[in-house]
């Protein structure tokens, strides 16, 4: 982990806050690199350490040409020139005397120089993912870190070793790593690298702790309670958007749950309904038996298809909604941190202005604060655009998926009904 | 939209022509209508049983129950009540076939008068499976349906049911010839008195008598025993079916309606989005359409439920025919037993032996034997009674046999009708389900298109 090497910002460069465009007016698709590339020489002067003195993790080497390459690579979202691929699969149960838990296989393929090998395959459990996320939040506080699936299973009814639960979790963990791997800054994080490659993560974790205590990195990013004067428009807008969006997601979650519940109750009734036609058929002679059995068959195939629909919605739809709610919660925290950084800067600036007797250079720590604010804003802005884009794709996919499942349900029912009743479609 | 409950058809010798839909009113379905000699009301004082052409009234007359209205009036206890009357329209078929469109003859009847007609038919034609009336009170209701008799939807469905009832009777080769039925259709005032004057109520078998017979009959005809079991099963299975169907309808309604909430939230969400907004908004409209579509679906299903209900009530009519047979059979058995016992008594008297324990035996022991004169007198009475009894047994046997014969003809006719009607109903139910699936596919495909434009 290289400490102290300043990392340049991949996108907005040195635009001032006022020049940064409105968060809701992101461009379609690819993030366009800032027209003003940071001057190589000025990079070295930026001290991107945290206000309390601990350095920010800046693990990626920063020569301007490789930076340019990386810019273009990372911004290419359709993956043709992506150089890091991560998947999560193959859940397995481990039983020891102390506990039982599930591990997942994490596979990596990469051409990046930061990795020693081109391929890795390691086993990780949820705890490890949780550790990774915490590390990322600590070391990349100016970025939006993707969410993990819920840690604890709230409802006592759900079996955390059931196939459905494990599969749902696996998909979410896969998504989590992919989002990080696609991120131009987070993907170069050292902890991420180790997570993907280390055979023995637990010893690294312990070692990391020792290092941390030396570096003081374990000190959480906490600023004093400064009051923010004026939140810039685009960040205020971000906050408002998130507030409204999370409410809407909550509503959609409740509606989806209600539908699942109603469908389950509908299914219960159907299960009683169909067989009545069969017992009626027993009392009748040939002529009526066939149509009666036909209707019984139609009801039964409807039931089966309905059960599948309800399961799918439970397993695929609801978890994604909940993931986004968690995402938004962590994003709001990042926004708060940004406010704090800005508040601190404003306070120090004001204090310095009061102290100034003659015209002298602005004190360095005020300058540091200003840099911090600008970097934070730039990182956040870039991540916000990225996030908006991903969100759009995610929800488009999610809703199309919902429509597809319903279409399949009706298709299955229709075809089986026609078959049972020998009626033309 | 007006609709008939089923294509009422005659299964016997006559054929049915179906006319063009009537121009006069909106959307009336085809009436079953046939050729005619004119039947002037004044000519018809007694049963029209003797027309001899084997045709039913349906061939001569177009019948419909076209409207319903609320009335208020004083009832028998001089209290104000509100009730519904139904307009019965009749027209001569020949006139229609000749291209004329005469105004229909009309009169108003309320439900209780239909009931009176049916009760009269039940008593008078006990060997016929008499078509049932639509339900008196709304049963098998699911939450959105009203159980209120005054509810317009209920009234409408009842109107259809009453029309179906009249058409069934007028398609029946025996029932359609009944004069009381004819007067029901043509004579508004004083009809009730005419019915009561027939004295049919006196002829009705008491419920107690019938129940008694059911328990005590020893040798009912096997076919009737089977028919009784069948009608019990039919009643039980259709009731169960209708109950569960109502719950299914309730749940289906819930599933569809909750989707309407998506419409609202998508609309609200689209307000904070830039590029996703349009797609979301239009998808929301489709969700609203989806939620609304369930109303039509369930209305059609209600129609199917009504068809099943008719046969639920028909099973009671079947049961009534079985009961009548049991009663006749029981009376025959009782009469026969009585004859046997009388013959036995004669034997005892004649031979002087007391074979079985009897009061006679007791009294003769206690009070001494009778005189020959007394015995002669008693024998004479017994002989008369026996002769009478033998005649009685003969006529009862004949009555039983005739009953079995006549009723079985109608039962066979009923079976055919039932199979045909229910088959059609079940097939159209399956078609309904398929249509529901198609609509669902359409809506979700539209929504999917909107989502892909997000």
From TrEMBL, chain A:
Alphabetized PROSITE patterns for the sequence: PX
Signal peptide: none
Keywords annotated in UniProt: Protein transport, Transport
GO BP annotations listed: autophagy of mitochondrion; endocytic recycling; piecemeal microautophagy of the nucleus; protein transport; reticulophagy
Record InterPro entries: AH/BAR_dom_sf, PX_dom, PX_dom_sf
Annotated TM spans: none
GO cellular component: early endosome; phagophore assembly site
Biased composition range(s): Polar residues: 8-19
Entry keyword annotation includes Nuclease: no
Gene Ontology molecular functions: phosphatidylinositol binding
Region feature Disordered, mapped onto this chain: 1-68
SMART domains: PX
Domain PX per the UniProt entry, residue ranges: 82-203
CDD domains named among the record's database cross-references: PX_SNX7_30_like
Residue ranges with Low complexity bias: 59-68
Family that this chain belongs to: Belongs to the sorting nexin family.
Protein name: Sorting nexin-30
